[in-house]
Design goal:
CATH topology of the largest domain: Rossmann fold
Radius of gyration: 19 Å
Distance between the termini: 21 Å
Number of domains: 2
Largest sheet: 8 strands, mixed
Strand content: 25-35%
Shape: elongated
Number of helices: 5
Low-confidence stretches: none
CATH architecture of the largest domain: 3-Layer(aba) Sandwich
Structural class: alpha/beta
């Protein structure tokens, strides 16, 4: 898996950089998947391909994106809300994930009036002090825009601690649910990915 938004970072391994393995580990891979490929330029995609092929020329490369599907509300998790619910609203994206830019860009594409953001480090667990800080930002946004802002979080952040976010009541908190999709590219698509995966598993 390669994050298209930040493929190699500073080329250093954790904790000095974002890489979990050195680039030479690509030699062991059967498939390369470039994630968030829809959010980067064609030139950046080509640059990633070049690096991968220099290490393992024959490696099949697939491209994926996160496609927003629907929201559910923190107060009523069984109800699915259409993405259009965000139109003509002011939102605050709150996340503790590895690629907050991708999350924020996905929300912006849905079409709210204004998007603000608070990014925490990946895997961070929200604390009550963070809730106070988020509340303060919400008040500032409401004073500035005249709209009651909606808080948007990712499924990952909700799953990590679904209780702490309830302290933001009475503010509306929506969880964005997305699915990973393979982007057809150079004759490779979801069908060819599944066929290749099946073939590799059988071997």
């Amino acid at each position: 898996m390669i994050n298209g938004l930040m493929p190699w970072g500073n080329c250093k391994l954790l904790p000095l950089g974002p890489l979990r393995e050195p680039l030479t580990a690509i030699k062991r891979a059967d498939i390369a998947v470039v994630h968030h490929a829809d959010l980067v330029s064609e030139q950046k995609v080509k640059d990633i391909e070049l690096v991968v092929q220099e290490i393992k020329e024959s490696l099949p490369i697939f491209y994926t994106r996160m496609a927003p599907s629907y929201f559910f509300e923190l107060r009523n998790i069984s109800t699915k809300m259409h993405l259009e619910a965000l139109r003509d609203t002011v939102v605050l994206c709150v996340s503790a994930i590895g690629s907050p830019d991708a999350f924020v860009q996905a929300v912006e594409k849905i079409g709210p009036l204004f998007v603000d953001r608070i990014d925490f480090s990946d895997h961070y667990s929200f604390e009550i002090e963070d809730i106070h800080m988020i509340r303060k930002r919400l008040r500032q946004l409401e004073d500035k825009s005249g709209y009651k802002p909606i808080v948007i979080v990712t499924e990952k952040d909700y799953d990590r601690d679904p209780v702490i976010l309830k302290h933001l009541h009475p503010s509306q908190v929506l969880v964005l649910c997305s699915e990973m999709q393979i982007i057809p590219h150079k004759g490779r698509n979801e069908y060819s990915f599944m066929s290749l995966l099946k073939e590799l598993l059988e071997v």
